[in-house]
Amino acid sequence: MQDLEEKINKITKEIQNETDEQNKKKLEEDKDFFIKLSLLFYYYVVLVNNSELKENFPLQALGEEFSEESYGQLFGYIFLLQHTHGVSNIFGIISCYFKTRIAWLGGNKLVETEKVEELSPISISKLYSPFVQQIQVPIKLFLGDHPKKDRVSHQLDQTKEIKRFLFVSPEITHTDRTSNDESKLVRSLCSVFKKMYYSNISQSLQLKNTFMEFTRNSFKWVELNKISFTDDDENKDDDNTVSIEYVIEDIENKENYKKIYLISDLGSGVEGKAWLAINTQAKAFVIKFFDTKKQNLEIEEESKLWYDIWGIKTLVLEFNNERCLLMPYFKPITPVDYNKDGFKDRLMDACNQFSNSGYLHSDLSLRHVGKYKYNDEDNFIFFDLGLVEIIKQDAANKMFKNVTDNIEIKKKKKKFKF
Predict the structure, then answer these.
(1) 225 and 314, same domain (yes or no)
(2) How many distinct structural domains can be found in the chain?
(3) Which of 64, 104, 156, 220 is the most exposed place for a label (fewest CB within 10 A)?
(4) Do 269 and 348 lie in a common domain?
(5) Which key words tag this protein in UniProt (predicted)?
């Protein structure tokens, strides 16, 4: 804490003496960064210097070691951010009572540079982690010499498993000091936080052929030979390619979902997280992983709602030993949809169907509205049925108002993003 205060005071003096406006602005940004950082360290410093805490602290905690599972989970989160969300140069921090380590993947360009911090590069050792985690959205899969009738089954059986290596720094404790008698922990964390700040999103990372393969009781990162992310004319009639099928249909045959691949993060909600996925027949669907508090009966009830309201069959299965709900994928609506003539009529049709089934969607917003074609007309459907109530009076009008109010807000802010 004292080191941070000295750093802030030093920058304050530099700001007062700086005449160049551009340099002054950068110094002010640095000062703001370290002030925010000092707040993070406040509680840590209080705890470490609390004599009562030290007296009552269990002695075995001092000998606590980092577990292989912890390293594996950290690898999974970093790899997920890089290959699903395209974040480059990611760092992780793993702490175990009085010990801390900084971790990253190979190829991190900020490890060897001193441009974004004052700390010298950290010497690292290589640690193998047996744990893994997650994926992306292709339009076509390339099958090589295998006939189209085999779909993607053959290629997905030939996937290459990703090697899991995690680079870690030596252990750092709160008592370690630098040659200048500064806290090594504070200085190291200041360094890594600033490196995190300078990390960016790389489109090329998002387009890699990296997927997470799930079975009933396991998951692993795998790599496919070749994937196309654009439906271009060059590959349209290629006999060695197969398109991902986005078909609205019942999901009911468990045999078709023994092995699946997550391909795109659809976001998180109050009750869990949803992913766009494909099975070994290249059919796309949505899989929802639930919060651990969600009971099996409630998951079954959400599956039942899909049939009661929309007449669509869904499946409740286990993947990686967790209960999940498998549902059809509906493309979310865009400004093109809600600016069309007749949109509100079709929206009201969906609200009426929902309420006529005896239910009210109590968490309905624009992001929960999907579309599909029927008799060459756009129709709308509400998904994410985790927060649905037994019908109340005027339920259809309430749901209709929730969506239309949401649209007006988006139009005013002009920030609607697909």
Answers:
(1) yes
(2) 3
(3) 64
(4) no
(5) Coiled coil
Q: Hunting for tokens 């205060």 — which residue is that? A: 5
- Last residue of one domain, picked from the residues 327, 342, 358: 327
| Segment 85-99, tens digit of pLDDT | 778 788 888 887 678
Please give the radius of gyration of the chain, using alpha carbons only, rounded to the nearest integer: 26
Last residue of a domain, one of 327, 348, 373: 327
Q: How many residues does the chain have?
A: 418
Residue 326: its pLDDT value, please? 94
Higher pLDDT, 126 or 154: 154
Q: Express each pLDDT in 246-273 by its tens digit.
A: 777 888 889 999 999 888 888 877 778 8
Residues 216 and 319 occupy one common structural domain: yes
Question: Does 225 share its domain with 298?
Answer: yes
| CATH classification of the domain holding 252 | 3.30.200
- Residue 315 clears pLDDT 90, i.e. is over it: yes
Return d(Cα 324, Cα 327) in angstroms, integer. Answer: 10
* pLDDT over 50 (residue 346): yes
Instruction: Tell me the range of 6-20, 257-271, 300-314, 380-394 where mean pLDDT is highest.
Output: 300-314
DSSP type of residue 86: -
User: Which pairs count as long-range contacts for 4-13, CB under 8 Å and 24+ apart, including other chains?
Assistant: 4/34, 4/37, 4/38, 4/41, 4/186, 4/190, 5/38, 7/34, 7/190, 8/34, 8/35, 8/38
Residues 344, 308 share a domain? no
* CATH number of the domain bearing residue 409: 1.10.510.10
